[in-house]
Amino acid sequence: MPVMTNQPLQKVIDELNTLIGEIETNPGTSSWTIRMALKAIADKAEKMNKETTQKQS
To answer: Rounded distance, CA 2 to CA 56, Å?
Structure first.
């Protein structure tokens, strides 16, 4: 079971690292763009959490 728990977490971490890299490469990235990327990551994390919870039930 720990693999199932860590896999969604690792995906979120990877996406956040990608976003950080993009911000470092393009410091002029608008706050709106960053907000939308963070919202997409959060939405995906919630979806993965629900799917993982359903599989464990």
So the answer is: 12
pTM (predicted TM-score): 0.77
Q: Is 43 exposed, middle or buried (0-12, 13-18, 19+ CB in 10 A)?
A: exposed
> How many domains are there within the chain?
1
Q: Note down pLDDT in tens along the chain; length 57 residues.
A: 444 457 888 999 999 999 999 999 999 999 999 999 999 999 999 998 888 888 777
Residues 19/38, Cβ–Cβ less than 8 Å: yes
Phi, psi for residue 30 in degrees, rounded to 5: -70, 150
